[in-house]
Design goal:
Elements (H helix, E strand, L loop, with lengths): L5 H11 L16 H12 L3 E6 L8 H12 L5 E5 L6 E11 L2 E9 L9 H10 L3 E5 L9 E6 L15 E3 L14 E5 L2 E5 L7
Antiparallel strand pairs: 1-6, 2-3, 2-6, 3-4, 4-5, 7-9, 8-9
Helix pairs in contact: 1-2
């Protein structure tokens, strides 16, 4: 499949999206999580689930933390974040959970998709980490005054005839050396390590 242009994407959303019309084509409007879910469905025939937060403070709740863990544990892909007041483009690559009695806290492995560098994969990864484009962030990074829609790509359903590489690698959360090999990545907490589910990452 050829990489679609910005206009191609706008036309697809205008023709198939519930919230876009012809005036969207040629505009400079940003894409939201709902737009992304529609595009992923059209271009890759992969369903997405939208998880909504009325406030960023809900990212601290056990219910939300469990939803993200369940998403990655089931083989779901990276979670795209869209907000109102918080207009940053971010994606959740993984989650690390610590439990202390009745208290549950989470750290989210966040990537900024704006990072780009015409270098080797190792150099890109090292630079992204050094510049903070990939980093562990706490739930406090979700702004209380903003609501959020999170686009959660579900695990693809493959026909028996399709071959797909699946690996499982243990990653230390304090030194996340990560190399992206393919899509369909999930991370779930396993105590002192993070388990990368359904391929995509390998520890350095």
């Amino acid at each position: 499949m050829d990489e679609p242009s910005v206009r191609d994407i706008q036309v697809l959303l205008a023709e198939n999206g519930a919230t876009r019309n012809s005036s969207f084509v040629g505009s400079s409007d940003w894409l939201g999580s709902e737009d992304i879910s529609i595009l992923v469905d059209i271009l890759f025939e992969q369903q997405c689930r939208i998880v909504s937060l009325r406030s960023g403070s809900e990212a601290r709740s056990k219910e939300f933390i469990q939803k993200i863990c369940d998403h990655f544990d089931s083989g779901g892909g990276p979670v795209m974040i869209g907000g109102t007041v918080d207009g940053r483009s971010r994606v959740i690559l993984g989650i690390s959970v610590s439990n202390s009695g009745s208290k549950c806290e989470a750290q989210y492995l966040i990537a900024d998709p704006h990072f780009w560098m015409n270098k080797s994969a190792d150099e890109r990864l090292r630079s992204a980490k050094e510049q903070g484009y990939i980093a562990w962030q706490g739930a406090q990074d979700f702004l209380p005054g903003s609501w959020y829609n999170l686009c959660c790509p579900q695990k693809p359903v493959f026909l028996p005839s399709q071959n797909r590489k699946v690996t499982k690698t243990e990653v230390n959360p304090d030194s996340f050396g990560i190399t992206v090999e393919e899509s369909g990545v999930g991370v779930q907490d396993r105590g002192d390590t993070i388990s990368v589910i359904d391929s995509g990452f390998s520890a350095n």
